[in-house]
Amino acid sequence: MEAASIPAARPKPLQVVQDWLSKYGLILVLLIMPVYYGIQDLSDEGDLSRLGGNIVDGLSNGSIWALVAIGYTLVYGIIELINFAHGEVFMIGSFTAAGFFGTIGLTAGMGVPGLVLGLLLTLIVCMLVSGTLNVMIERVAYRPLRNAPVLAPLITAVGFSFILQNVGLLWRGGSQEGIGDLINSQNALFTVFGVEITNGDLLAIGTTIPLVILMVTFITRSRLGKAMRATAQDPEAARLMGINVDTTISLTFLLGGMLAGAAGLIYALYQTTIWYAQGFTAGLIAFTAAVMGGIGNIKGAVLGGLIIGIIQQIADNRIGTEWTPAIVFAYLVLIMVFKPSGLLGEQTREAG
Amino acid sequence: MVNGMRLALQQADNKAGNFTIKYESLDDSTAQAGNWTPEATSQNARKACQNDKAAVYLGEFNSGATAVSLPILNECGMPQISPANTAVGLTTDEPGADKGEPDKYYPTGKRTYTRIVPIDTIQGAALATTMKEDGCTKVAMTNDKEVYGAGLSRNIQLAAEAQDLNVLFNEGIDPKAPNYRSLASRAAGDGADCFVYAGITANNAVQLYKDFAAAIDGLKMYGGDGVAESGFADPAEGGIPESVGANVKLTVATLSPDDYPPQGQEFFGDFEETYDEPNPDPYAIYGYEAMNLALDAIARSGDGSKEKVLEALFDTKDRESVLGTYSIDENGDTTLTDYGLYSVDGGELKFDKTIKAETGG
Amino acid sequence: MTSAMGNRNVKIAIFLAGLFVVAILPLFFNESSGFIDDCTLALAYICMALGLNIIVGFAGLLDLGYVAFFAIGAYTMGWFASGFYADADIHLFVGEFASSIPGIHVNFLIVLVIAAALTTLAGIIIGLPTLRLRGDYIAIVTLAFGEIIHRIAINGDEVKIAEGFPLTNGRQGITPVDKIDLPFLEPFTSLNLRPWYWVALALALFVLFVNFRLRDSRLGRAWIALREDEVAAISMGIPAVKTKLLAYGTGAAFGGMSGAFLASYLNTVNADQFAFSFSIFVLAMVILGGLGSIWGGGRGRGRADVHQLPPHPRRAQRRAEQGRARIRPLRAVVRHLRLPARDHDGPQTRRPDTGAAPPDGARTGHRRGRHRARPGGAMTDSSPDLILDARDVSKVFGGLTAVGGVDFAIPRGGIVSLIGPNGAGKTTFFNMLTGLYKPTTGAILFDGAPITGGRPDKIMARGIARTFQNIRLFGTMSARENVMVGEHARMRAGLFGSVLRTPRVRREERHVSDKAAEELAYVGLAANTFDQLAINLAYGDQRRVEIARALASDPKLLLLDEPTAGMNPQESDELTALMHRLRDERGLTILLIEHDMKVVMGVSEYITVLDHGEKIAEGLPDEVRADNRVIEAYLGKGAMHE
């Protein structure tokens, strides 16, 4: 029973250990891989540049996951739904980017000003397309089921995810497609302590940070953001206070979708390969990130995304790329079973 | 490949000896998978068996699919010609085959399967020989874990080690991974100077080559016939960028058009005329020859029955074909062993030379 | 009655005729026709859909990783019936060709049993940690498990059990797989599909049979009860995790058996077959057919019907928490976006009681009530025969004291009331008695034995039964079935007994069904409504059914949570009479939470008053009525001065 592990008012010694584990156990588990391989590197090679390289790669990959994870967290926070189609919204973002490059004739050969302008334009387009798509999904697939049994919208979400995958399949075919390397993604910009920082790393991290700051500011400062929080707390009360709950929920989907669209563009530029199934994998990874950070918590989603990115890269590098997804999913299972509140989440009762 | 078959049939005026030939194309894939599925494959095989008038089964492209269709076709005694299978175990128990192979594919105990491409042992040796010649010392190997990729990579590794190349690792990749940067940086850390991928384009080969090229300056990269197609080589079709392509060499069992006998030359002319495609996929010519071999066997069979066609098929001796002169041995393998080495130039495959691989490795 | 019997016979006749047609169908087609091929595949998928139906449809566990069981079943066939482990040389009851190939070759029927066993085991391993979670978490965790198994299948060629014995053959696939070889029959071939079809049909019929048998059994009712309302179900004595595990394991076994069949039929076990999309494919069959409906899962017929899933628990919670939404300072941006998604009575509620709760911190550290007298001092001393004795019980929710240091006892055979204003902690107290909450401090003795913090189903089995403030019947079950759920803990039929329907199980079912009818009649329900769906009953009747359900377990102590809420005076009077009858005729002890003072004063022998989680008064009805503190608590301070 969940009720069995409600923290007691006066903890006994054993309980102290338990509490400590439930607080820091996850951090401990997450540290195992980097620390183990760090020590190994130190003893084998005498420096940490290999681990450093993994971490830098991980951070830049992870910042893409972070943007997608925020979408999960926002939506889950407000209507407690795992928006299964979110990964596909991200994929559509990538596809829009790739299509739009062609439309406006963006190539790597253009000068830097033209490229920057073109990319900014693409960013706006991607964010709008993905945002609108996400709002539409909510209207079509979730809103009619707002008062339905809890599993019903989850099932339509899975259904929508498959519809979008097939849209992607029809749009750009069934196999991975390389697209123009506009930013010379893997060109090493500079080297710090033996770790190369590439254009792609800079782009991914450099776009994610301002976007996250913008998002956090919007939610904490703006009137609409406050409405979102109020709705998340208690939709009925929010309604009584004159907040239009439907609009607020749509806004949440819009914001989540826009970030996914941005992530889609960064992904396309960073990886230079897109395909219709990228959204499914990315969706699961990002969801894992959101849960790891504590679902409902934006900072947690970002942190989770970055950590997952690092875990993936270390696993790719040391264990083998074919095992990486299994490792990520194993983390997902472990966290959901033992600490569903994640790193930054509140110790809620059902987390018990 | 299918176009190659069609062309052959068209040129023969749908006739083989006294028989009119009808060609029925069966697809073994689903759009979603973009790849073959066992359900569709076995259904196709049964469909062929069920049809009394079917005399030859041409296929499959993928060795894994053949492993499914072969036992079924074998049961109804249907002669099978594959234009593209290279997995060793389908016909012999040479190194690279698993224990129990190839007998487990033949429930009737009678051989019914032939192919007109040389097996992976030869391609593996060809790649290893090329790497040796190019001065490789430390080789990073990857494969896509499918029947073709895993089998070929086994053979490359055997051949490479036999020629004293240092194989750093032979890693199966996850085709769904967004990128392979960490794997590439591992190879860089180990000091790799050469890279081989055994697998097909559809398993994220483009990303793999891009990431390895970015991680190691001047890395020499190799690949098998699984990536010898425009979808891999041509950036306009989503393939690798030209800068990466410049360092890539591929082996294909197809030779340069110039190296083919006159019939082969003719084929390329005809193909271009019919399909308006000057550079057919390397396998087009194999599809063409598979059909021609089938027609020839039917014509030689006398009555067009499966039994006689099968006999005629295994009786193929010194056949002069677009691929050159070859025979079918008692295992069903071709006696051809030549591989062509291609480089990637401006998004197109360009023939370099013919490799006479040191077999037995 | 006779017309019903006739109806039943007609149904059986139609079913048999249909079955006959389905069975002879292949004879009308060529023996390797594509149509039979499709039908055979469809039948195999139907097996899986019916297996998944037990998990998703019956037990309401959204499993997005069902493909894992297909994989394990298929690999069982690959391991034990192919040339994959060529270094081994084991041949058990197999035909000539299989005998000639090195490897492990075991007869299909044996593999089928192994596959069922292995997948059940896998189901238990996956289910044990997973099934405690809430619905949408279960979906994600099973999905993750499915993907992990898929990954292990892909990479299993690198995992060596022993030299020459890799776990799987990865994306190269294990090919070929032995054909089915049944005793007294010719070995199957790839060309004659009829025997394959019949085997698939037999499997499908077997699974269908099990589905039907389970649907109308003790277990089936427990699953549906858990799906409809988990809190009510566990309060009726259904062990949640164990019962869900049974559903998960059974559903898994069918996936595994079907998987073993498909491995042989498709002649390959390839890791690429076990992708997530397959789980969704099977799930789609179940949903299109109507969740929980057997024919739906079986034939993909019927309408999409997801309304049988449990209601969104959060709505009720939201309403319950209305009026005291504390917007806390948000440290993280949307940290508190999530509210616990459980209903008012449920254990997951952050703060279970409705109404005017004190502000944060007001009650913390203030756990002990000032009134520490035992209930009616004299009563405690003179009648040591207490059926329930709770001492210093308190419950703290994240710094908020819902119940603080309450002593409470009930004499055997008494009718006792717990009253207090909204938010006084009454229901929280109830939930501690029944095990839904674990008390933060204190001890509870029932019938002389400690039950503090015990599991609800165990406490129920000891003899405490309850009803709920807001009626919590299992809506898709008839009144009779609802009451039969109440007898769950008293029944013994297990999985196999239910499927085989042994004479003992039949007797038990008949007995329980009769007893349910008796109880329904006892609480005053009209006989013609016994087999109506519970949700279609009148409000007062629903209350009655709930009481009958609680009575069905033969409790010693009956907890009634505001039983007269929403009743008209006449119904209330009837209920009061019923309580007296229960005590007098059955010797039951009754604890009542009630707002209707007329009922309370009319029925109670002893009254305890809670306010803000503390006991503020207790005594005989007249004493309590006159107590100033009680009046103050109910009417506010000002009332005293009027």
TrEMBL record, chain A:
Sequence intervals crossing the membrane: 21-39, 59-82, 89-109, 115-137, 149-171, 202-220, 249-270, 282-311, 323-342
UniProt keyword terms in alphabetical order: Amino-acid transport, Cell inner membrane, Cell membrane, Membrane, Transmembrane, Transmembrane helix, Transport
InterPro entries: ABC_transp_permease, BCAA_transport_permease
Signal listed as a keyword: no
Membrane topology label: Multi-pass membrane protein
Subcellular location per the Swiss-Prot or TrEMBL entry: Cell membrane
Domain of life, per lineage: Bacteria
Cell inner membrane in keyword set: yes
Location (main, coarse): membrane
Alphabetical list of PANTHER family matching this protein: BRANCHED-CHAIN AMINO ACID TRANSPORT SYSTEM PERMEASE PROTEIN LIVH, HIGH-AFFINITY BRANCHED-CHAIN AMINO ACID TRANSPORT SYSTEM PERMEASE PROTEIN LIVH
Family: Belongs to the binding-protein-dependent transport system permease family. LivHM subfamily.
Annotated protein name in UniProt: Branched-chain amino acid ABC transporter permease
UniProtKB/TrEMBL annotation, chain C:
UniProtKB keywords: ATP-binding, Cell membrane, Membrane, Nucleotide-binding, Transmembrane, Transmembrane helix, Transport
Compartments where located: Cell membrane
Membrane topology type: Multi-pass membrane protein
Keyword Protein transport: no
UniProt keyword annotation of ATP-binding present: yes
Domain ABC transporter: 388-637
Biased composition (Basic and acidic residues): 340-353
PROSITE patterns the UniProt entry points to: ABC_TRANSPORTER_1, ABC_TRANSPORTER_2
Coiled coil start-end: none
Transmembrane segments: 12-29, 41-59, 66-86, 106-128, 196-214, 245-268, 274-295
CDD domains named in the record: ABC_Mj1267_LivG_branched, TM_PBP1_LivM_like
Gene Ontology terms, MF aspect: ATP binding
Pfam family of the protein (one): BPD_transp_2
UniProt-listed InterPro entries: AAA+_ATPase, ABC_AA/LPS_Transport, ABC_transp_permease, ABC_transporter-like_ATP-bd, ABC_transporter-like_CS, BCA_ABC_TP_C, LivM-like, P-loop_NTPase
SMART domains found in the cross-reference section: AAA
Compositionally biased intervals (Basic residues): 364-374
Region of interest called Disordered, as start-end residue ranges on this chain: 302-325, 338-384
Protein name: ATP-binding cassette domain-containing protein
Organism: Svornostia abyssi
Lineage, uppermost ranks: Bacteria, Bacillati, Actinomycetota, Thermoleophilia, Solirubrobacterales
